[in-house]
UniProtKB/TrEMBL annotation:
Entry keyword Nucleotide-binding: yes
One Gene Ontology MF term: UDP-N-acetylmuramoylalanyl-D-glutamate-2,6-diaminopimelate ligase activity
Residues reported in the UniProt entry to bind ATP: 116-122
Residues annotated as binding UDP-N-acetyl-alpha-D-muramoyl-L-alanyl-D-glutamate: 37, 52-54, 158-159, 185, 191, 193
Organism name: Thalassoglobus polymorphus
Gene: murE
Protein name per Swiss-Prot or TrEMBL: UDP-N-acetylmuramoyl-L-alanyl-D-glutamate--2,6-diaminopimelate ligase
Keywords carried by this UniProt record: ATP-binding, Cell cycle, Cell division, Cell shape, Cell wall biogenesis/degradation, Cytoplasm, Ligase, Magnesium, Nucleotide-binding, Peptidoglycan synthesis
Organismal lineage: Bacteria, Pseudomonadati, Planctomycetota, Planctomycetia, Planctomycetales
Length: 506
């Protein structure tokens, strides 16, 4: 549960959106607003949003029944007795109204918005950690949790709708939380969920293949990501990853003069970094920030996570942290749940749970382990159902970089698990690296632990922090970290192997 909010205020639509026109009235004063007919309450404004399944305007009768007193629409609707406010961009106006009702909370906070195919959760998590280390209470909105700086709750979406964002930012203000790190997914940017909010720093971590079921093609996907720039406050800064293959594709999309800062290992970047050491216990790296040299240490593993650290450092500098605060903050930053999270229960091989669910992410985590270990890599992976089918064969190709692949269920949702595995197998050279197939994820994890020899690494990818598995319409309890622990302990009991000092948490 988050901090309960005081009642929102009220706004005049004519004052808030000067370009709006009105049917049946000269202005509408709004004190409550709903974008789903089921959420309408007596006297509220019903916002008719376009959707992918349907259109909100089809639910005006239901909204009326629940007491809606006015309609927000993009063209005048005939046969409706209620006052209507007509705007050209309903999602944008919806955001303005939500944030207006809560006193425009983003104006009072220092905010970093993070987009990118991979690395949003990790970068926002690191940024929050850096800010909090420097005694700046920070809220978080993202895939794992929403937090107002004091209280948190598990998230439903990575980026919630405009009303939830406005409420969360208002709760942060109420808690005297002065900063926020917010994930901005491509779906959210496409649907204008962040409308009404401003960010001081907009970070784009990378652009690789995901969500083409929704965006249709990579160009649309890049265009959706580029919309992050629309949310920059005056004087805000856009932070781009110069190591990313596609980062320059964002430039023509931006079509605006904004302050930019690039980061990367490439010498062309404004902020460069070098990796000094990577071990199974963490990494050391040096950031060159202007004339400053920052020696940094983190318990995080993998080049991609060092890149995320540098992205977070760029954001933190712009939000006012000193380089000393950032270096010290990295050392204190704990692991991000389900992102290369080590599971140690006394086994003599390494086990990491990671949220890699794209080909790029899978290739990165395998490469990260190759750099710190010469022994075999066993990967347990699958792909989500009812999501981008075109990424599966590439995920298979990436997974086959491991020495042994065990294909299993991720969240099959309503798709056939056999079909999903067939799609993944299209990317495989089955004769060169024959995978094992075990649809039951618990058994697949158990199998990986049985196959692991001393010094090997087991990677369990795709579900990270998730504490559920969606099979059909059912959402069943499931936790990769717990399943790994159970499997390791079971294997140790069965074989008697145990070379590591036992560190069984929880
Ligand atoms: C694909 C997608 O993003 N869908 C979101 C979208 O649904 P939709 O476009 O299908 O909406 P719709 O059902 O056509 O309805 C249109 C309008 O009619 C209204 N309506 C609908 C039915 C009704 O009875 N009454 C009513 O008023 C709806 O409130 C809506 O305003 O708008 C809905 C309302 O805001 C969201 O709940 C829904 O998220 C669904 C649940 C979802 O799974 N989204 C995922 C894919 C998503 O957004 N993921 C990203 C993360 C991706 C990443 O990790 O990179 C995220 O930010 O979480
Ligand atoms: N900068 C990066 N570049 C490439 N891969 C990354 C990067 N950061 C993280 N990854 C990989 O992507 C996975 C997901 O990371 P993270 O949760 O931070 O991304 P996200 O963008 O928030 O994902 P989602 O869209 O699901 O919310 C990680 O577990 C890791 O395997
Ligand atoms: N945020 C990502 C997460 C996918 C994780 C994977 N476990 C799956 O269910 O596909 C998405 O919505 O596509
Ligand atoms: Mg995320």
């Amino acid at each position: 549960m988050l901090t309960p909010l005081r009642q929102p205020g009220s706004v005049s639509l004519r004052g808030l959106i000067p370009s709006a026109s009105f049917v049946g009235c000269a202005d509408i004063t709004v004190s409550s607003v709903a974008s789903h007919s089921d959420e309408c309450t007596p006297g509220c404004l019903f916002v008719t949003l376009p959707g992918h399944q349907t259109h909100g305007r089809k639910f005006i009768p239901q909204a009326l029944q629940r007491g809606a007193a006015a309609i927000l629409t993009d063209f005048p609707l005939a046969d409706i007795s209620l006052p209507q406010c007509i705007v050209s961009d309903v999602p944008k106006a919806y955001g303005q109204i939500c944030h207006g009702l809560f006193g425009d909370p983003s104006r009072h906070l220092g905010i970093a918005g993070v987009t990118g195919t991979n690395g949003k959760t990790t970068t926002t998590w690191i940024l929050r950690s850096l800010l909090e280390y420097a005694s700046r209470p920070t809220g978080l909105i993202g895939t794992i949790e929403n937090c107002d700086g004091i209280l948190s709750e598990p998230s439903v979406l990575t980026t919630p709708n405009a009303m939830t964002i406005a409420q969360l930012l208002a709760a942060m203000r109420e808690q005297k939380t002065r900063y926020a790190a917010i994930e901005l997914s491509s779906h959210a940017l496409d649907q204008s969920r962040p409308a009404g909010m401003g960010v001081d720093v907009a970070i784009v971590t990378n652009l690789t293949h995901d969500h083409l079921d929704y965006h249709t093609n990579f160009e649309n996907y890049v265009a959706a990501k580029a919309k992050i720039v629309n949310y920059l406050k005056p004087g805000g800064i856009l932070v781009l990853n110069a190591d990313d293959e596609h980062w320059e594709r964002l430039i023509p999309e931006l079509n605006q003069q904004v302050g930019t800062l690039t980061y990367g290992q490439s010498d062309d970047a404004d902020v460069t970094f070098e990796i000094l050491e990577m071990t199974p216990r963490g990494s050391r790296f040096r950031i060159h920030f202007g004339v400053e040299r920052m020696m940094c240490e983190t318990s995080m593993i993998g080049e991609h996570n060092i890149s995320n650290c540098v992205a977070a450092a760029c954001g933190a500098i712009h939000l006012g942290l000193t380089t000393e605060e950032i270096c010290e903050g990295f050392a204190e930053c704990g692991p991000v749940p389900g992102r290369m999270e080590a599971v140690e229960c006394g086994q003599d091989y390494r086990v990491y749970v990671d949220y890699a669910h794209t080909d790029d992410a899978i290739a990165n985590v395998i490469q990260s382990v190759r750099e710190i270990s010469k022994n075999r890599i066993i990967i347990v992976c699958g792909a989500g159902g009812d999501r981008d089918r075109t990424k599966r064969s590439a995920m298979g190709r990436a997974a086959s970089l491991a020495d042994q692949v065990i294909l299993t269920n991720d969240n099959p949702r309503t798709e056939s698990p056999e079909q999903i595995v067939d799609d993944i197998l299209c990317g495989f050279d089955v004769s060169a690296n024959p995978p094992l197939i075990e649809f039951d994820r618990r058994k697949a994890i158990q199998r990986a632990m049985e196959l692991a020899h001393s010094g090997d690494t087991v990677l369990v990818t795709g579900k990270g922090h998730e504490n559920f598995q969606i099979i059909g319409e059912q959402r069943l309890p499931f936790d990769d970290v717990k399943s790994c622990r159970d499997a390791i302990l079971h294997t140790i009991r069965a074989t008697g192997q145990s070379n590591f000092p036992a560190k069984v948490a929880g």
